[in-house]
Specification:
By secondary structure, this protein is of the alpha/beta class. It has three domains: about 5-45 and about 70-80 and about 210-290 and about 395-440, FAD/NAD(P)-binding domain (3-Layer(bba) Sandwich), CATH 3.50.50; about 85-195, no CATH class; about 295-390, Protoporphyrinogen oxidase, mitochondrial, domain 2 (Polyamine Oxidase, Chain A, domain 2, Alpha-Beta Complex), CATH 3.90.660. About 30% of the residues lie in helices and about 25% in strands. It has helices at about 15-25, 65-75, 110-120, 125-135, 150-155, 160-175, 185-195, 210-225, 270-275, 275-280, 285, 325-330, 355-370, 425-440, and strands at about 5-10, 30-35, 45, 55, 60-65, 80-85, 90-95, 100-105, 205, 230, 235-240, 245-250, 255, 260-265, 295-305, 310-315, 320-325, 340-345, 380-390, 410-415. It is globular. A seven-stranded mixed β-sheet has the order 8-7-16-17-18-15-19, sandwiched between helices. Strands 10-2-1-14-20 form a five-stranded parallel β-sheet, covered by helices on one side. Strands 5-9-6 form a three-stranded antiparallel β-sheet, with no helix packed on it.
């Protein structure tokens, strides 16, 4: 009986984990290589040495339509760590504390979204008329070549609709300003999230740290399936011989001989690992870094008392788009006291601000949206910035997103920056990892 084929997956984020698991399921022996001391990439968590609490490096939501992600978590045995809504229901808060709720009824797509919006408080008759006029085109037009704002212009969407619905949705999903991000990324989200029935748009809230969802369970799962995870192990290049990837070279000079390679690193690192001759022959890979970067900042705030019973809410018109109340979402044994994690997407504009300034601004803003926080004492804050959270998504550069296959039959690409049809999301990353495994096993 011949030995299993060997694959090396470079990059231990969701894309790399998904690819490694899928290859293992198909009978390959996999080595997953991660440069950082722990796997997880941009969706990881760590234990705060001061409090002992688990802190995510950036808050992430899942959705019911995340079929590939849900299958991965099921395989890893961690699907119970995410609580999914049966259908979308989200509270939005305005300055002063007035709340309104977007709730989609159990109707066929996209009627459930339209029905939810038509009952959304704060919309005028003109807003609702604009929605109804664009409804027949909503799931059909790709918006290719347009920014999100340009697409909304073409659909005749009012400023109030943009402020209350479109911009919170787009900025959170695309992690970029709507005047910059490509509309085709948003329409891809709409088709997946709102085109598959009411349950597809339901939100999924992790009840534990992100590392507990995929990175740490993946290490154990690979170990029981003949594979391994190497952390703190940086790759320096890929050897190519006779038109095939033959080995991954580590920074310490070690060679990992293999039958196939999956490159699941950020788009900014691709050029560092591939030979220049290979890059010269592929303009997309040669220019991958031109896809740009957009940051996310998470502001963790601990109060001395309960300030809200809402587990999750959005802020209309705020710098903080969404707030995770981990004192409600997580078990008290995991999240102690009153702990709010505030998300600032498209946060590249804050690069000159100090963490103290970002935290203070978030605390002051919460005071305007959640009046109860004004009487509460801030015990502590912690700002976590992911400067390279996602690719930027400018419409004129989206053509640079490559597919999973490369010119070499046994070298595949994975990552949320590849051409998944989605923006830089967990689901896009997982789908890309599965697709890369399919490329490899088809050779």
């Amino acid at each position: 009986m011949s030995a299993p084929a060997r694959a090396v997956v470079i990059g231990g984020g969701f894309a790399g984990v998904a690819s490694a698991v899928e290859l293992s399921r198909r009978g390959w022996r996999v080595t997953l290589v991660e440069a950082r001391r722990k796997a997880g990439g941009r969706a990881t968590s760590f234990v705060d040495p001061e409090s002992g609490e688990t802190i995510d490096n950036g808050q992430h939501l899942l959705m019911g339509c995340y079929t590939a992600t849900r299958e991965l978590l099921h395989t890893l045995g961690t699907s119970h760590l995410v609580r999914f809504q049966k259908r979308l229901s989200i509270t939005m808060i305005e300055e002063g504390g007035r709340t309104t709720r977007l709730s989609c009824p159990p109707l066929p797509s996209p009627a459930h979204l339209l029905a939810g919006l038509l009952t959304f408080k704060g919309l005028t008759l003109a807003d609702k008329a604009a929605l109804l006029r664009c409804a027949p085109r909503l799931m059909k037009e790709n918006g290719n070549g347009m920014t999100v704002e340009g697409w909304l212009d073409a659909l005749g969407q009012t400023e109030n609709l943009r402020e209350r619905f479109w911009r919170p949705l787009a900025v959170a999903a695309l992690n970029e300003a709507t005047a910059v991000a490509g509309a085709e990324l948003l329409t891809g989200v709409l088709r997946v999230a709102f085109g598959q029935g009411a349950s597809g748009s339901g939100l999924g809230f992790p009840r534990a740290g992100l590392s507990d969802l995929h990175a740490e369970p993946a290490a154990a799962w690979l170990g029981t399936h003949g594979g391994e995870l190497l952390t703190g192990t940086a790759a320096s290049g890929i050897d190519i011989a006779a038109g095939r990837a033959s080995a991954v070279v580590l920074r310490d000079g070690t060679r990992l001989e293999c039958d196939a390679v999956v490159l699941a690193v950020p788009h900014t690192a691709v050029a560092e690992l591939l030979p220049s001759t290979f890059l010269d022959a592929d303009p997309k890979l040669a220019r991958a870094s031109d896809l740009g970067l957009s940051a996310i900042a998470s502001v963790n705030i601990w109060y001395d008392r309960r300030v809200t019973e809402l587990g999750f809410f959005g802020q209309i018109g705020g710098t903080v788009q969404f707030v995770f109340n981990k004192s409600v979402l997580w078990d008290q044994s995991v999240a102690k006291g009153s702990y709010l994690a505030c998300v600032i997407s498209a946060a590249s504009g804050l690069k000159e601000s100090t963490k103290e300034e970002i935290a203070q601004a978030a605390v002051e803003e919460l005071g305007r949206y959640i009046p109860a926080t004004r009487a509460a004492k801030v015990l502590r804050t912690m700002v976590v910035r992911e400067k390279q959270a996602t690719f930027s998504g400018r419409p004129d550069l989206l053509w640079l997103r490559p597919g999973s296959a490369t010119a070499l039959p046994n070298l595949a690409l994975a990552g949320d920056w590849t051409d998944t049809g989605l923006p830089g999301t967990i689901e896009g990353a997982v789908r890309s990892g599965v697709a890369a495994a399919g490329v490899i096993t088809a050779t």
